[in-house]
Amino acid sequence: MRRLWPLSSDTLSLSGGSRALWDRSPPLSVFLRQASQALFTGGDDRSAPPMAGADGAEAAIRRALAEKQAAVDSQAEAVREAKSRFGISHAEVDAAVETLKVLKVEHGAVARQLQSALNGGGNGARGREEFRQTVVNTLERRMFYTPSFKIYGGVAGLYDYGPNGCAIKNNVLSFWRQHFVLEENMLEVDCPCVTPEVVLQASGHVEKFTDLMVKDEKTGACHRADHLLKDFCKEKLEKGVTLSPEKAAELRHVIAVLDDLSAQELGAKIKEYGITAPDTKNPLSDPYPFNLMFQTSIGPAGHCPGYMRPETAQGIFVNFKDLYYYNGNRLPFAAAQIGQAFRNEISPRQGLLRVREFTLAEIEHFVDPEDKSHAKFSEVSELEFLMFPKEDQLTGKSAKKIILGKAVSEGTVNNETLGYFIGRVYLFLTQLGINKDRLRFRQHLPNEMAHYAADCWDAEIECSFGWIECVGIADRSAYDLRAHTEKSGVHLVAHEKFPEPREVEKLVVVPSKKELGLAFKGNQKMVVQALEAMSEAEALEMKAGLESKGEVEFQVCTLGKAVTLKKSMVSISREKKKEHQREFTPSVIEPSFGIGRIIYCLYEHSFYTRPSKVDNELLNVFGFSALVAPKKCTVLPLVKTDAFDRVAKAISRDLTKAGISNIIDITGTSIGKRYARTDEIGVPFAITVDSTTSVTIRERDSRQQIRVDAAEAALVVKELADGQSTWADVMWRYPTHTTPIADDE
Amino acid sequence: MRRLWPLSSDTLSLSGGSRALWDRSPPLSVFLRQASQALFTGGDDRSAPPMAGADGAEAAIRRALAEKQAAVDSQAEAVREAKSRFGISHAEVDAAVETLKVLKVEHGAVARQLQSALNGGGNGARGREEFRQTVVNTLERRMFYTPSFKIYGGVAGLYDYGPNGCAIKNNVLSFWRQHFVLEENMLEVDCPCVTPEVVLQASGHVEKFTDLMVKDEKTGACHRADHLLKDFCKEKLEKGVTLSPEKAAELRHVIAVLDDLSAQELGAKIKEYGITAPDTKNPLSDPYPFNLMFQTSIGPAGHCPGYMRPETAQGIFVNFKDLYYYNGNRLPFAAAQIGQAFRNEISPRQGLLRVREFTLAEIEHFVDPEDKSHAKFSEVSELEFLMFPKEDQLTGKSAKKIILGKAVSEGTVNNETLGYFIGRVYLFLTQLGINKDRLRFRQHLPNEMAHYAADCWDAEIECSFGWIECVGIADRSAYDLRAHTEKSGVHLVAHEKFPEPREVEKLVVVPSKKELGLAFKGNQKMVVQALEAMSEAEALEMKAGLESKGEVEFQVCTLGKAVTLKKSMVSISREKKKEHQREFTPSVIEPSFGIGRIIYCLYEHSFYTRPSKVDNELLNVFGFSALVAPKKCTVLPLVKTDAFDRVAKAISRDLTKAGISNIIDITGTSIGKRYARTDEIGVPFAITVDSTTSVTIRERDSRQQIRVDAAEAALVVKELADGQSTWADVMWRYPTHTTPIADDE
């Protein structure tokens, strides 16, 4: 089956390089419903690739701690012995006790050092928790999201986008369409969520889209086996400061290989560690696979099983033939789809980061496997950003800045097309407002990647949960089209017409159905299929065998045994043929975006607080760009008068007509409170009506104001919101307005 | 349960007024995936309200036909008798035969007249079929839509939007957001499709969202009972020209009341008419209800049943409390949602008009039931368009033009808010490109409307299938919020604060729990609840009874019996209270848009053909406005040279940068063929590169061309596409370019 993004790296707590980011003063972060996305098989809560550097530091502290403990123990023994020894002087005992005290203090210091390292350093973990809580509170209070069906107690893993969240999601998707679909002239399609079983059998999801589950043997409650094991190991590591370095290494190893453990191995570990059900402490069943697709039935008769799609990509693959034709039978081309996807998570955690329904935006770029160059690669080749190639991960290094063109030319990134999309994804995310220092492209390790994949890179964004994979960019070779070709019998292939016919020599295998029928009866078909499926090397070997010995043993997998083939049963010969075209299954490069996760990280990266000018309260601000902001402008009459209200309403109407989303706040609250309110949902501009002829425009982050004609205000904000002018431009064009402090926060 | 849009009116075939539209020369029509929508319970294929006028005409023809038949029969008898009579003259026999011939010719004419009336007149039915086929072929060939999972044989009722359809859908949704959400500052939300059972129990869908189904008793194949009965009646009516007027009236009546038939009545009719399974002719089971929701299970344990939502509205209702708070606890306000909805149709028909998954856009406008005025009603009150009030339907009249303001002031439309949305929907649809003469607002008849609804109007658009309901606009009173209040125990109410407290006299019922406990033990709670639930009238009656007789009999429903209450058990008194606010459940006005159906009708209304200028071939054109068109511009080098290609690519890049979707066609095909290709997908503008310095811009419908600087071309097209300039404007500003015929089609 497709491995989606089977490995994550919530490596933040131990990776020194990234930790530093958390120590900055008013840092940036957030939490939204669909950051949730939940789209990734393994996702965020699986283990990170082993970080030798960080691991090493921790191990050193653990070793020092064990040594200190040993010293404390031996000195305590010495004190006990001294006290019990007859005739020893008080002074000697006191000295021994004093030494013990010093050793204990030293032990305490090392223990704290370890605890601190485990928590991500200094104010790290606590700081992150607090920061996240502030962001989440703001998001819930201002209805960026809300737990779904709250009045009925909610359903784990389901969240609603509220008005602000919904507006941001629409903006992100519009920009996605502009940046990818429009820019590359991609063929966007829109397929149903309800999917018949056969499609997902072909893709492998019916068989393998599973997580291992254990059941509480008494209550029947379900848990993810790997979660329980991981939680156990993490808790031991975090709380068990007395853990021996060997034990700690073992637990860490378990976390590192969690993804690769079979049901048997997971079960054995759970038994070995005596892990029980979290709340009840009841014994647990053996782990068994649970399919994560929501199942349903199509039509009334009940004999057409279906599923809610776990990804949007399959809708594109099954349409390949039509899309290729639509594109004039030319490669390369890309198809794209935005839509809902579904995963019936066993026990959703991490709030908005792992949900049961989420919006995916996927691109399938089809390309000739023999030519993965990209015509527009030069447009991104100069970009330089954080990349984390697999070698660096395996040797314990950190992500480092690499020039994209170099990464491709040196073979770090497999090919130009893959590189092009990595560059485009970088531009997309940073233009949205993701902090480029907290964005890295991490290459999949060999054990993360499906056998057929040529290369995979995840765009990971750092947030308070660690590094979260938000976009996966994979070269999936020809796997998907081949799988559907095989299952459907429809050839999902492309052709390259030769300028002139080419003469090629081909090995032609012709089974003699008559002879094979006589010899193998009902098994004939299987033998024929096996013969036709031989590689050229196998066929050549058989040819040699038949010619020298007259018969060969031939292994037929579908029969589970070998059969004896005689020369009369199959003819193998080299033939020259004129070929006019080459037929091949295209490779597919797939950038797949977890829209909710991106939005979640955007929230965190956009959030900051600043002290109010009037009192000491901290005010929350989302520093969204106009591209992303849920509303582009707030219109506020300075004080409540009919005349000001009229002007405000007229400006609001002008804005609406110009397609600029806006809110009008005519409540009687103080202007400072109203600014705080609009800053808190990230509205970049505010028009304050303080006269009937001219008004001020305020920019959220700088809090600078300019004065413009009331009739002109909407147009100026439109220019700003559409990006035609910058704030600096308009500052230069219009007089600055200075408010008395009381007017502002 | 909510009746969605339970009744349709595919009245086209018999309604004279509408029929005429089909007789126009190059008429307009189409067929898309999601016109499909399928969102309407009864939808398009249920019966129309009886059209007395049309019915009468048909009955008259049937009577005339029966008379002619009788005359033919009697004359034939006369001829037979004459021939057999001995001694009759040849001349006499010939005269009788001649008379018979004349009668037969007359009979034939009347029969044709009837057939023609049944087919919707003249070239009606056939013309519609042909027209639809042309449109559908174009749509499929140019990949506006495609049956989903085609390589696996497809699934009935599931369609994909291909690249052109998807682009149009995105444009329609963007405009919907601009026209409704932005304009009214609606609170847009985005809730999951997966919905727990309790929500849909409260809404009534679990119990009542069903269609009646019959099974082929031998094969188990499922059919909609009403479909079979309706098909039977229609076929008899259409083919049975010898049908007696009485029988015809009966069949027509069955079709008219189809919606109101119970399972028993439907079953009886099926038996009476001897209806069997369509293909196999096997006997059928009795009809039984089949729930149309796709069922699934949430979470791994299997004890949390869920469904794929059948509408998006419930997500808004369950969020009412938060949304009301978000809106500053003020009414009125509207929430909106765009999203997928699902209906597991028994046997989807009518192609794209009835599908199993579709996009809904719904608005829930919450309003004080005591004040349904609308502040912006004056903005739409002057609009005049086709309305079809229930009285006119019942008296056999046709839809007529009514001024909206008058319809509201005269009470035809229940209230201003409902009227406001009718007006806004009219503007939305006509601005998209729906022909205003083929759009009508039809009021629901009493039997179509749920008991709680105050008034309902459907925006129906005429297409080749008849009049299709595409938007439902209903005043659903307080039903939905009350249902969720009851089920969840969370009070979904609003408050109106009084400017100053009001003194009100209230009847206060205070049960004495002690006395009741002694008397009724475990039943006490039920008695108390029944006492508290009494209406004021009931309480007053009890008060009187207790005061006169000292005790009363009191029916407690939950106990299923009456109990005897003594005076000591309950005190009932009038008390004066100061009230600071009024608490009430808001009414909801719900405009609900079947996006796919609207797009389908838009296709039909936009399509036309015109003869090629070079040969006699008919060329297909979709006359989409720039607002809707899948691409705004095509860029074509007149002939294939490197220099022209370079200019074309530069212009295409300029357009993309300006956010104008475009295609570049550098194939070697003739310019005429390439124009035909871009016209066929409805691209409004084409830039033809015929020099490296200046280029031409061609408008699709007029085929006029202007000449502009190559560097300016993208900007001019942007102006046109954004609606800042009309074609007439730019025609005036730039020189006209006249092409030699060979250049154009």
UniProtKB/TrEMBL annotation, chains A, B:
<keyword id="KW-0547">Nucleotide-binding</keyword>
<dbReference type="InterPro" id="IPR004154">
    <property type="entry name" value="Anticodon-bd"/>
</dbReference>
<keyword id="KW-0067">ATP-binding</keyword>
<comment type="subunit">
    <text>Homodimer.</text>
</comment>
<dbReference type="InterPro" id="IPR002314">
    <property type="entry name" value="aa-tRNA-synt_IIb"/>
</dbReference>
<comment type="similarity">
    <text>Belongs to the class-II aminoacyl-tRNA synthetase family.</text>
</comment>
<dbReference type="GO" id="GO:0004820">
    <property type="term" value="F:glycine-tRNA ligase activity"/>
</dbReference>
<dbReference type="Pfam" id="PF00587">
    <property type="entry name" value="tRNA-synt_2b"/>
</dbReference>
<feature type="domain" description="WHEP-TRS">
    <location>
        <begin position="64"/>
        <end position="121"/>
    </location>
</feature>
<dbReference type="GO" id="GO:0070150">
    <property type="term" value="P:mitochondrial glycyl-tRNA aminoacylation"/>
</dbReference>
<dbReference type="InterPro" id="IPR033731">
    <property type="entry name" value="GlyRS-like_core"/>
</dbReference>
<keyword id="KW-0436">Ligase</keyword>
<dbReference type="GO" id="GO:0005739">
    <property type="term" value="C:mitochondrion"/>
</dbReference>
<dbReference type="InterPro" id="IPR036621">
    <property type="entry name" value="Anticodon-bd_dom_sf"/>
</dbReference>
<dbReference type="Pfam" id="PF03129">
    <property type="entry name" value="HGTP_anticodon"/>
</dbReference>
<dbReference type="InterPro" id="IPR006195">
    <property type="entry name" value="aa-tRNA-synth_II"/>
</dbReference>
<dbReference type="GO" id="GO:0005524">
    <property type="term" value="F:ATP binding"/>
</dbReference>
<keyword id="KW-0648">Protein biosynthesis</keyword>
<keyword id="KW-0030">Aminoacyl-tRNA synthetase</keyword>
<keyword id="KW-0808">Transferase</keyword>
<dbReference type="InterPro" id="IPR027031">
    <property type="entry name" value="Gly-tRNA_synthase/POLG2"/>
</dbReference>
<dbReference type="InterPro" id="IPR045864">
    <property type="entry name" value="aa-tRNA-synth_II/BPL/LPL"/>
</dbReference>
<keyword id="KW-0963">Cytoplasm</keyword>
<protein>
    <recommendedName>
        <fullName>glycine--tRNA ligase</fullName>
        <ecNumber>6.1.1.14</ecNumber>
    </recommendedName>
</protein>
<dbReference type="InterPro" id="IPR002315">
    <property type="entry name" value="tRNA-synt_gly"/>
</dbReference>
<dbReference type="GO" id="GO:0016740">
    <property type="term" value="F:transferase activity"/>
</dbReference>
<feature type="domain" description="Aminoacyl-transfer RNA synthetases class-II family profile">
    <location>
        <begin position="134"/>
        <end position="611"/>
    </location>
</feature>
<dbReference type="InterPro" id="IPR000738">
    <property type="entry name" value="WHEP-TRS_dom"/>
</dbReference>
